[in-house]
Sequence to fold (948 residues):
Amino acid sequence: MSLSDKKKIIEVKNLRAGYGYVEVVHDVSFSVGEGEILAILGSNGAGKTSTLRALTGEIKPMGGEILYEGKSIVGVTPYKLAQMGLSMVPEGRHLFGDLSVQDNLLMGAYLIKDQNQLHKNLDEVYKLFPRVKERAKQTARTLSGGEQQMVAIARGMMMNPKVLILDEPSLGLMPKLVGEIFEFVKEIARMGITILIVEQNASETLKFADYAYVIQNGETVISGTGAELLTNEDVKKAYLGG
Amino acid sequence: MNLKKALSAAMIGSLMVVGLTAVAHAEDVIKIGWLAPLTGTAAENGQQVTWAAEMIVDLINEEHADVNMLLAADAGLPNLDGAKIELVEADTKGDTTVATSEARRLISEEGCVALTGQLTSGMSKAISVITEQYEVPLVTAGSAVTLTDGSEDYEWLFRYNLTDNTYIDDSFKLMGEANEAGTEIKTVAFLSEDSEFGANIVTVEEALADEYGYEVVENMTYAANSTSLSSEVIKLKEANPDCLMVAGYATDVILLINTMSDQDWFPKMLIGQRGGFVTADFFSALGEKTEYIFSTGGWAEDIQKDCIQSLEEIYPEYSKGIAFNEGMSKDCADVLLIASCINQAGSTDPEALAEALKAPDADCTQIFMPWTAIEMNEYNQNTAATGVIMQVQGGSYKTVYPEEVKTVDAVFEAPTWSAR
Amino acid sequence: MSTLLQALYEGLINGTIYALIAMGIALVWGVMGILSFSQGEFLMIAMFVAYFFSTATGLPPILALPLCMGILFLLGLGIYKTIIYKALQGPTLSQRLITFALSLVLVNGMLMFFGGTFKTIQKTGMEGSINLGPIVVAKNRIIPFLIAVCVFAFMLWFLNKTRQGKAIRATSMDKTAAEHVGINTERSYALAFGLSAAIAGAAGCALSYYYYCYPSVGGNFQLFGFIAVVMGGFGSVEGAIVGGLIMGLVDSLTGVYFNTAFKYLGVCVIFMLILQFKPKGLFGGK
Fold:
């Protein structure tokens, strides 16, 4: 299942996962090369989120392998993955609602103990997301959905991650804002950070993804470069509305 | 249907077996039901009283020629061929509901011929519902006047110990003695727990204060096991009565005295109405702060009677060293009287036993209480019972009232905390 | 005037104890959604520790504070690791009942080992009182007050300013998010439970200055603590402190100016009034 010749940072092989006795993910395999943007697409309930949750240690896989930088991370808890450089921006944002935007960002840098580094990261993130800087003092829960998503991504960047994992960042946002969010994703990718993005919005995502996989009924069914999938008939039919 | 029948047959069968065993045992062992808090807040005290009751039963069952107490000289009950008394202990957990269901069990399942124990007035009323129904005597040392003033129609309730009337009457007479001795006592305040126990006492206190002509400057009730009695003490301090009368159990009495010490206030006289004042905890928890406190009592350790000195010697063997005290004496006296009346009746038949309980012919010199006679009135109250008032002097209670039995003089004006 | 001042003062002092209990309950609820019915028992165990320390060494109970807090912290940690951790995997009802069961075990365990006698420390090194004119300040209430103030200050500092404290706060706000920013939420849970036991430990040490100690002493304080927590807004540590102080003041003032028999009524009326106007409590979510 190798799509590029880049060094693999994440490899998922024949993953099986679910909740209790119910298996949702039956056979998912994919890999992410360093510095790439990899998209995982699929409709609601296809098993995308469960795949991610297995990857980030929130649920225990029932079988298969998950490798990060060549080592198995099966059963590794989310906070340890964060320490290893995997930063997750969860679906639904999960901001610390009572805290200010800036405090949210600082919380994102929980793992950075060096104060100088912390301020450097904050400055960089503010440079990248000027709108977040404008809202620095505002309480997170009072922001609009788009702004909250930006803050969530900005917070995910605060820990100097190697890989940024985005779970449905466009969910519930107006089309104009979706474009804006994806611009940021591209910007982040340009900084050399590997991006794993899970999306329902296939048409927009495929425009900037280096590679993409489509999950259906808990299995990876189609894979290829973003451009290939954009023109793939099956993908078009199922996900691109034509 | 068949299953049901089989089950009921089995149940009837087992009931018959239980019934038969009860009869078979009645020949040589007579069961007296003993209700006391053996777990829960009051467990420690309940256990100590229970040990005392066990001691009395042992003295009855074994030969103790050296102890000048009723039934001690012979083994068992002489009029019933030396039948032994068995104390069937039940844990009330200090809870009236539990006490009631345990009382029912003691009668219907254990076959006890009479019930007694460490019972509050409130509990005694609740248990009476059961004992009246089963027609089994209940002997209580709870002091509420209403138990034996005819206000309730109790036929199977007996009380040999005092009622609040006598205790409180004694208290006002002691204030009179204080005035005669030159300590001016004009105002009183009452502080009582908001329970059956406290409510009964307050009623009597109010009536008697009026009768004896004392001004009541404060009259408060509080909830048991209070987390704080600060506001109570603030009000008392403001009212500053000459004499404070307190009705409460150990926890609150300890907190009250500590709070009074913290706020640096103490009246000329503080008279406790037994309860928490006559427990071992009172001394162990408060130490020197107990000094000068009065308590009414149905018993005092310095009363001169042979059997009292004997019990004071024997009891520590049962109690791991704790001394025999007022609270225990009253409840144990009931055990002794029940046994004595069974012996007098020569049978465990309820009617015969009740007849004996109504007119015990026991020799009072052989009962470890201050009473000189037992005279039961129509409501089954011993009208000849007498009490004492004790004062803590030098770390233990000394009898200071009445004149005839007192061993030391009362100190009528307690010094302030700082002057101690 | 002097009566009012005295009532306010006594109310405040008693309120600090309720506040300490409430704080522990709020912390545990806020972080892991467990109702800590065992807070009163933690208080009780600490009172025993202070009592035995003080009677054995003859030293004032304040010196047992590190011991009380330390032992209770470890006990809390142990209880979390063995009992609470498992309960959290189970259904909600068992999470609700587990600390209740625990409190029964602790009360009866202590009864079994130490009996039900009432123990008070008679030599606290702070006997007597200071007459300040309008009010009498009992010396043995000064140290409990100072202990409480120090614990409040320490906890607020710890939760807001330290890395570990921020981790606990983050965990209580959003466990998923906390985990994703690299916080070991499992450790936050254990630490929060241990800390709440340690706070009750401090309360026990403070209370041992003037209250008697016996196995079921925690019950009433626990109840007041719960009301204070709800008053302050469930899960808010600051709210719990304010709630506790209000409880103490209302308790004292209704006792003095209304009727001592109805002081719990006063507490409950204020409680209902606050919930009427601020259903989520004084410091409850906006």
Notes: Chain B has two domains: 2-162+303-366, 164-297+388-419. Chains B and A do not touch (no CB pair under 8 Å). Residues 13-26 of chain B have pLDDT under 50 and may be disordered.
